[in-house]
Amino acid sequence: MKIERLDIVIAVLAGISCLGGLIKIPVWALFIGETWYFTLGSNPEAFKKSIPPMIEGYILAAIAILAYAASGFSMGVQVLTVIGTVIILMLSLKTKMFACSLASFNSYSCLFAGYYAGYFPKLDVVSFLDWKNLVIAMLWIALANVIGLFCGWLCIRLGASVTKEEKRISEN
Fold this sequence. Notes:
The protein is mainly α. It is built from seven helices and no strands.
């Protein structure tokens, strides 16, 4: 088993990513976005495949969260709303634009996790149904996912590049 340049680059960038925690970027959401990049082929197509279903996942999760709050936190309403939004998610997977279940379900879960755990810069004044904080959470955590996609891209760019000297040596 040989450690290669890509292994080192991924490890170093993962470590550097942790610094995002200093400004309350949810590092776990960043790692999820980075994983999307690797899982979806480690090429720029990963952005096209993951961002539309990511947006959809966040919007549907926000609808479920708002409905739950509007109901006075009724578990029955939450169950029914999740059923409804997940059916929409499942149907959308049958389209080309939203076909990436990895991104849609991860983002759906990310908003529930990040919003309820408070992994975003919160407003002190809570609005009706806390919709302003929910929008901030959605944008903040989605931003972390997209930064993660860029980190995945950067890992491949830095880890797979071969210097002229290395190319010359391998050719001889």
